[in-house]
Amino acid sequence: MGQNGLGRLVIVGIGLIGGSLALGLKAAGGCREVIGVARRAQTCEQAVALGIVDRAVTDIAEILPELEAGDVIFVAVPTLAVEGVFAQLKGALAEGVTVTDGASVKGSVVEAAANVWGEVPAFLVPGHPIAGSEQSGVTAARDDLYIAHRIILTPLENTADMHVQRVRSMWEAVGAEVLSMPVAEHDEVLAATSHLPHVIAFGLVDTLAHDAENENIFRYAAGGFRDFTRIASSDPVMWRDIMLANRDAILKSIDLYTSNLGSLRDAIAGGDSERLMGVFTRAKAARDHFTKMLAKKAYTEIMEAKEVTFVAQPGGAVKGDMRVPGDKSMSHRSIMLGSLAEGVTEVEGFLEGEDALATLQAFRDMGVVIEGPVNGRVTIHGVGMRGLQAPPGPLYVGNSGTSMRLLAGLLAGQDFDSELTGDESLSKRPMNRVANPLREMGAEVEAGVDGRPPLKIKGRNSLKAIDYVLPMASAQVKSCVLLAGLYADGETSTTEPAPTRDHTERMLAGFGYDVRRNGARASLTGGGKLTACHIDVPADISSATFFMVAASIAPGSDVLLKHVGINPTRDGAINILRAMGADIALQNQREVGGEPVADIRVRYAPLKGIKVPEDQVPLAIDEFPAIFVAAACAEGETVLTGAEELRVKESDRIQAMADGLKILGIDAEPTPDGIAIQGKGGKEGAAVFGGGEVDSLGDHRIAMSFAVAALRADADIRIKHCANVATSFPNFAELATGAGMNLEVC
Ligand code: S3P
Fold first, then answer.
1. Which among 123, 310, 314, 683 is least surrounded, fewest beta carbons within 10 Å?
2. Is 622 a known active-site residue?
3. The pTM is what?
4. Domains parsed from the chain with CATH numbers
5. How much distance in Å is there from the Cα of 585 to the middle of ligand 1?
6. Confidence band (pLDDT; 50, 70, 90) for 302?
7. Which of 501, 508, 541, 648 to mutate to test the pocket of ligand 1 (most atoms within 8 A of CB)?
């Protein structure tokens, strides 16, 4: 027996697919013996000589009597030849022998089995390794072909678990990842992702080969031709069989593609530059992210799957000038308003982080042509207030609460249905806070269990204006209602219990929309229009805060944070750190595109604990994880109250920080709406934190805060689950190490 309980492996058809499984399994010690079956004696001899199989026969009937429970027969012949092999197996298999196959079409394999056996037998596990190449034949076999490749199994209801498990562990033994899906779904997905591209490649090369000038064409054809047509060198018999076996699904894909090619042709004929840009930018974005798109996952989920750990080494100081990435809140809004404006909006300083990119992708999915981002520059071809198109599927916004809540408001005003989904963290966050006011406006919004995502929004509703008094200080809720108000009949207004970031109001005004503001109340009248403009997004004060805290706690530090947005609804961190004794100077204060901006110079200064004024809480809402690190380095106690909102951010930030701080030796007591932290500062530069392993729970701001803490630690701080730092601050590690922190990304 092999290590995984597999007996013999019989490979029927010793080509690239069958031969590679044989080689991989032998290398992994995954079975007792490999027997090959090939039509031609020469292939059998070659397979033995190459060490692919232990022995080989031309007639399968010869070896069937030897087989016993635990053995596996892998049928790796062209799709339409599968039925002939099944016919030979009929009545000749011992109890407990498993049969599986590698054909690209599963419907025809299941049909072949039913033709032969009368019903699909419980020992047949239809499967498809997604690992082919244009090469074929016994000499193409490789022992590493399946490593990190996917195998799709399509077991039926009556397929026995034991056989499915056996096939699964066989593939896992050669390093593959095994997935299951229904037969029909497999055939549709493969028609679109594999079979259609082969039709096009074969068809294109054949068209060019018939051209009288074909010699010239092939002589001068360079990269594009080579990359695009590689698969036209694939085995013709195999592909003929696939086309015939998966006829209906392939025809559906060809028809869709033909109609799209037709409209591309019209765009070229009519000189329709915008339509061409639309297709090309959407395609480029999809190609750049195609793995994620195939998996129907957004950027963040893939990043998390990668698993990133920060190892922050103790000591150091931060020095020098730096510009942290663009403001996340403004980046989201620039895409939303730019898309709905009339004309072309140019954005500079756009945050190329996963969250803002999720918003950008959502608008591309709704038909907006968006060029970039390239070095923070984005060009948005606005479609006007009524120009969005129904997206092809759910809009996946990853980790981004801002995307989901603001988009919910805009989508409630569209005349098409939509659905918003997010990653694991976002799927736990409360959405009734936006669903409720939208319902009051007459929108039909359906949330998941307990008011969590996904959000399903029914189109075709006319919205009615409301006067909404916010139950909590939330800029996302305020923005959601105001954005829905753009589509409502009459004047919509919001009244907030405490000032929250006002970028929506400022940016709407920048796009020429009349927003009236009176104290806590903001109102606008629906039915107006937005006019494209130029947006300069300043650096994000939330990202800058990590370096403000770093410089404040590490003796010898002196940093200049350039072009940072210091909007008074966002400057709580500056006020709180100053109250703790931080040395923060605002230089070169100016106004850029309706937003106040400054260069912020921060030098080390001893800190003392404070009672954080509650009116500062909404103004520093995202900065508390970093402020808690400053509090631990201060002399005396810091007490935060009135901050229960922190419990429903990307993680429960009160608990996550309290847990991590305790691991690092700090006395931190969480309360329902805040925390009390006993600072260990006092002696200049002395270590405050012990080393240890903390968990960021996939929350970007928790991860970066603990990295900063290492400046005052006496041993390494290992921080788990840091991939989501890319949602708001993709180059954090680079800037941190450049400034003098000792941070390793593993
Ligand atoms: C944001 C508002 C804040 C903030 C979030 C971004 C925005 O959330 O925490 O990171 O862009 O409107 P709340 O409005 O829910 O407090």
1. 683
2. yes
3. 0.74
4. 8-181 (3.40.50.720), 189-271 (1.10.3660.10), 310-322+540-745 (3.65.10.10), 328-536 (3.65.10.10)
5. 26
6. very low
7. 501
